[in-house]
Amino acid sequence: MRISKSFKKLSAIIMVFAMLCGVLPMLGCGITAKASSNPVKLYAMEQGATKYGYRSYDIYVQVEAGSAATKAVYVHYEMSGSDEWQDVAATYLTKIDDNTEIWKASVYGWGLGSEYAIKYVGDGQTYWDNNNGNNYTYSDYLGVANVKSMRLTYQSSENYKIQAAVRNLAYSKVVKVRYTEDNWATYKDVDLSYVSAISGTDSEIWEVTLNLDPDKRDSFQYSLCYQVNGQTYWDNNFGSNYDSTYYRGY
Fold first, then answer.
1. Would you say the C-alpha torsion 235, 241, 243, 247 has a positive or negative sign?
2. What CA–CA distance (Å, rounded) separates 152 from 204?
3. In terms of C-beta density within 10 A (0-12 exposed, 13-18 middle, 19 or more buried), how is residue 131 classed?
4. How far is the C-alpha of 135 from the C-alpha of 61, rounded, in Å?
5. What is the percent of the chain with per-residue pLDDT over 90, rounded to a whole number?
6. What distance in Å separates the CA atoms of residue 223 and residue 240, rounded to the nearest whole number?
7. Under 8 Å between Cβ of 169 and 122
8. How much is the average pLDDT of 138-155?
9. What is the value of pTM for the model shown?
């Protein structure tokens, strides 16, 4: 049987295409794996009030430690009353384990809009965490964190209110504050009580008011403990614990 030249050419093209399909995935495996993962995520956010009355926001970002040799992290946020967006750079804060870094950006002023996203540039490649296309709002206290202390106004020496943002992982849960008034020579555990859900999120607010000795205020520290589904999660301010200066305005 005679085979036409056209058929031979078509067969050759198909063979070359098949070979390329087999080779290209091997050549591009590193790029494919990198693009399919996201090495940056919102960790948590806390609000504060400045002495001039406007709001400030500390935004904590979780970055995969080995994801790049050179890193730059930004909060990309909307300006109030306009379609203008701008970046504020985050700075490295600490490591919480061998694979996880925490970076922190502070955004404050009258002109803050209602939305923001996280941008990460690692070795020249840009990654985004934009809350699955919805962007984050300033009601999103929790990113990947399950519990985070919330910054309130300055507290009195005796009646010290503590609020926590807690991810609602199950109906049955226990939220505690562990605190000391003598630099951890001794400590107490006190339960927080449910206050309300945080609208538009899967998180809740829990709180407690501690009765402290005003004379021991400089020795006061605390951490939060969240127990749910047989697991225990801590917020100890990335290993530094919280103290009486946490609520002070900027």
1. negative
2. 16
3. middle
4. 14
5. 65
6. 9
7. no
8. 89
9. 0.81
For Cα atoms 205, 53, 223, give the angle at the middle one, nearest 5 degrees.
Answer: 35
Tell me the two tokens of residue 219. Answer: 């020795």
Residues 3-28: what's their mean pLDDT? 41
Per mean pLDDT, which range of 8-12, 28-32, 69-73, 138-142 is the poorest?
28-32
C-alpha of 218 from chain center: 29
Tokens of 31: 């790029």
Query: In this predicted model, which residue has the larger pLDDT, 18 or 167?
Result: 167
DSSP characters over 206-240: EEEEEE--GGGGGG-EEEEEEEETTEEEEESTTTT
- Concatenating the DSSP letter of every residue in 74-95 gives EEEEEETTSS-EEEEE-EEEEE
Cα distance between residue 103 and residue 62, in whole Å: 7
Going by the DSSP 8-state scheme, the letter that residue 53 receives in this structure is S
pLDDT score of 22 more than 50: no
Angle in degrees, CA 223, 227, 229, rounded to 5: 155
CA dihedral over 209, 218, 55, 116, signed as positive or negative: negative
In angstroms, rounded to a whole number, what is the distance separating the alpha carbons of residues 248 and 155?
8
Residue 57's beta-bridge partner residues? 47, 107
Largest Cα–Cα distance of the chain, in whole Å? 103
pLDDT above 70 covers a percentage of the chain that reads 80
**CA nearest to 62, candidates 140, 152, 142:** 142
- Nearest CA to 144 among 247, 226, 62, 74? 62
- Which carries the bigger pLDDT value, residue 91 or residue 35? 91
